[in-house]
Amino acid sequence: MDYTHLGRTGLKVSRVALGTMNFGELTDEATSFAIMDEALEAGINFFDTADVYGGPQSPDMAKGYGTSEEIIGNWLAQDGTRRDRIVLATKVYQPMETGPNDKYLSAYHIRRACEASLKRLKTDHIDLYQMHHIDRATPWEEIWQAMEQLIREGKITYVGSSNFAGWDIATAQLTAASRNLLGLASEQSLYNLTQRTIELEVIPALRHFGIGLIPWSPIGMGLLGGVLQKISEGRRATPGLQAQIAKKRPQLEAYERLCRDLGAAPSDVALAWLLHNPAVTSVISGPRTVEQLRQNLKAPSLRLSDETLTKLDKIWPGPGGEAPQAYAW
């Protein structure tokens, strides 16, 4: 496994991160344990979760959300050496209870959400605490004050963002700088061959501020995982995925044909394409099974030629470059 710095920080993380969104909802605890064992053995040291992961919330709010963190906490508790071998990341923002202050990024909610995540994860610190979405109703001075307090108490080490726009990243960083804080270490964004909008402004902002990029949904919600072959073999897709397949079938046919010519699995090509981008720190593998994780681990060793990268750009064109040159002079 290769490792790289998380943005401009001194922290090194694996180029493949283990995403645990499926834990508790699509993947039971025993299988989740096996996936984490396999990930650790393979050299993955970057584990990503969120307080909201784990399944649909029940009407009484007693079950569902928080399950992924609980499973990770149970796994960590099995062996006292595991915690110091991983970089543990989670997120805050989503509603976890029914009260008016049980969501978003007020200092009140950040403090309480962090304490709850620490309890579920059975640890005393979170290495990367990420804001799951932007909260434009809460001033940055309040958000950074809350994060600074958690850092001072040793409960979190780095702060990250997720699903931020380029101007949100810039605003966050300028406010952090005014408080003499490091600010954001990373941004977790939707980014794959089929979804390249962040190339306009988010990636330029990340590069300018030295913030690491962690793409989520690297295989496009399954579209880039050899979906045409899977359907031909009798595996059914969801109605939403079927609609996407119908819309993008010519591109998918060209993409899967190129992957066959390369002798590589489509999912590996999708991940390798992301890892060729210097802005990308790690790609998130969110396996439901150990076998899926093992497949994703092949991607870092797959080298794509300039010719192949050009062909991929023709099949899955981006927005035309960075803003404003992409749409103006």
Structural class: alpha/beta
The amount of beta strand, in percent, is: 5-15%
Report the helical percentage: 40-55%
Mean pLDDT: 94
Low-pLDDT parts are: none
Number of distinct beta strands: 10
Order of helices and strands: EEEHEHEHEHEHEHEHHHEHH
Major pleated sheet: 8 strands, parallel
Subunit arrangement of the protein: single chain
Q: How would the global form be characterised? A: globular
- Over the alpha carbons, how many angstroms does the gyration radius reach? 20 Å
What's the tally of helices? 11
Strand order of the largest sheet: 9-8-7-6-5-4-3-10
Distance between the termini: 42 Å
Describe this structure in words.
The protein contains eleven helices and ten strands. The chain is α/β, with parallel strands linked by helices and 329 residues long. α2 crosses α3 (107-121), α3 packs parallel to α4 and α5 runs parallel beside α6 (202-209). It is globular and about 55 Å long. The relative contact order is 0.12.
